[in-house]
Amino acid sequence: MAGAAAAGAKRALLCILARVRVTKPSTLELVSILFHSLNLIIIIMLYLIGLGLGDAKDITVKGLEVIKQCSRVYLEAYTSILTVGKEALEEFYGKELILADRETVEQEADTILKGAHQCDVAFLVVGDPFGATTHSDLVLRAVKLGVPYRVIHNASILNAVGCCGLQLYNFGEVVSVVFWTDTWKPESFYDKIAKNRRNGMHTLCLLDIKVKEQSLENLMK
Ligand SMILES: C[S@@+](CC[C@H](N)C(=O)[O-])C[C@H]1O[C@@H](n2cnc3c(N)ncnc32)[C@H](O)[C@@H]1O
């Protein structure tokens, strides 16, 4: 009897949820939604989705399906350069993308997460969400706010470097080589390359890219 009542309640809740999302939520999501419904807040999900390293078609099938169901889709656009423009991605995904620069992600992360309280929100990252630059800060904030999250991985520069023929097992610490300015000329990457070499390890050197972060203050972050 109690089982039938629980099943009925679950069905009723699913009917309500069908208005706000297409896919069936997991039990974990249902519990989360029930809990937050008491505060008239519906927590759905934050998705961190890797886009791979090529063009729009490098996204995984799973990643594309999730993007299509999300109400808001952010495109992280400061740690990597896309080989295609935002418009090409929008056309292929069939979704409008919100560009998220460093400022948005680091200083307005709560704005991204607030959206996740009413709908599914996707955060797209070129490569893998945790490749080289991690987005663990966003994940930690989500956990703190009780917003469930999922990661959909993809190829990263960290494994694609294997295309040069060197054995991935034999890479040492990855280094970033930043742009020098007249007053700021960091050389610490050299010591790390030298250390890797002494240990018989290869070094993946990530050359800095300039997107919007032209100021010295931003480059040093
Ligand atoms: C933080 S890492 C890449 C992180 C990315 N999420 C991944 O998993 O590959 C960023 C660095 O990768 C390199 N990179 C990224 N996209 C690139 C591109 N299209 N061409 C050349 N280098 C690129 C640059 O050195 C850049 O500074």
From TrEMBL:
It catalyses: 2-[(3S)-amino-3-carboxypropyl]-L-histidyl-[translation elongation factor 2] + 4 S-adenosyl-L-methionine = diphthine methyl ester-[translation elongation factor 2] + 4 S-adenosyl-L-homocysteine + 3 H(+). InterPro entries: 4pyrrol_Mease, 4pyrrol_Methylase_sf, 4pyrrole_Mease_sub1, 4pyrrole_Mease_sub2, Dphthn_synthase. One of its GO terms (biological process) is methylation. GO terms for molecular function: diphthine methyl ester synthase activity. Pathway: Protein modification; peptidyl-diphthamide biosynthesis. The chain crosses the membrane at residues 33-53. Belongs to the diphthine synthase family. This is diphthine methyl ester synthase.
